[in-house]
Amino acid sequence: MKEINISDNNIKKTKNTPTPEANIQPKKETSPPTPDQTKSIAKPTKPKTNQTPKEISKRKGLLILSLIGLLFVLGIASFYYFGIYKYNPNPPENDIVKITGNYIPTKILSNIFPNILFDNPQEPRTEESPINGLLFTQSEMNELKEKRPIAVMINNHALARPQSGLNSADVVYESLAESGITRHLAIFWSQTPAKVGPIRSIRQYHLEWLSPYDPILIHDGCAASEDPRLNACGNTFFYNIKDISTIGSWRWNDGIRYAPHNEYNSLLTAWEYAEDRGWDEFPSNFESWKFKNDETIDQRGDGYRYDITFHTQMNNAGLYDSIWQYDPSTNSYNRWIGGRVDIDQETNTQVNAKVVIIQETDITPSYDDSARLIVDTIGQGDAIILMDGKKIDGTWKKTSRTDRTTFFDSTNKELEFNRGRVWISIIAQSTGKFDIIEQ
User: Fold this and answer.
1) Both 393 and 344 in a single domain?
2) Dist CA 69 CA 79 (whole Å)
3) What mean pLDDT is predicted for residues 263-288?
4) 413: domain CATH number?
């Protein structure tokens, strides 16, 4: 046999040449692999990855945060379920301790917030009363315009005090009747007292003061005379006054006042009656005064006490003398009558006014058997106006019965009044007296 050379060079040359020995089956014994075999055998290796150690650390951090968040959510859910849902917050009624005293109740916020957050805004007060300048909302004014002013003759006899309704009047006229005794003509519109009075009779000059208001008239009796300057009974009919006289009135016997000082009426009843008669709207041609807001505190006067004597010769021991005292806290004037505080019995408040006017005119006796007075209401004369703590010297003017009296300052400029009750005291130039009592 030919000898086979198995040197490395020969192996390389004869690598792809089959030989007889190539068909010989190899033994099962394992022999070390050759370098070429090493290339074809797959070695077990670790999985390859492109992540850096920094990225691996970041992934671990996110995983930890996710676990913490999950635990937090589970904690909240457990608290809600076991702490709120499963636990009954309302103890049995028998276990409640009831405190009946010696404690300060807390303010219920549920009653406060709706008023602040959910109520409709308040309607502004933009509408001015043509009678005394008070401000009302548009809705209030629309309702008031469906009502006619009411004029009431109110007794001021010493046995008729305290009266009812004076602090609800818009304007009050105070003047002599007879024998040094005064009487009130009160004009009502913006307020509706259920009780006014005591009611008394009317005089001619009262008709002339009330005519510009074209009001419903409440009175008990009237002065009758053949003299047209005194004939209130005949002129009430002649002027076509909306007179209801004593309709709806009643007597009130309180053990102190007796007839004729105990007759009263109600504005509610008067308006109901007036509506049936078609007297249920404000006069379309009413002449208004001019109005303004109160002066600022630094612009107001000091204010004093002012004494008004209506008749110096028939003084009646001062029972009808009135005193007005300025109240800086309200910028208004409080009233005394006959040396005592003047009280409105219905409100139990001292009678007061925003503006007080002392109007001087000619007042002369009629020299008839009734001792009636003739009061000049038409014309002009001097006036003193108390307003904003100041005394203003001025004048007044009225051109006709249906013309409203207008007031002017010393420069003949029409005065603007503060908003509120206006009280006009009419005194005689000859027998009336006005004094300032300094504090």
Assistant:
1) yes
2) 15
3) 94
4) 3.50.90.10
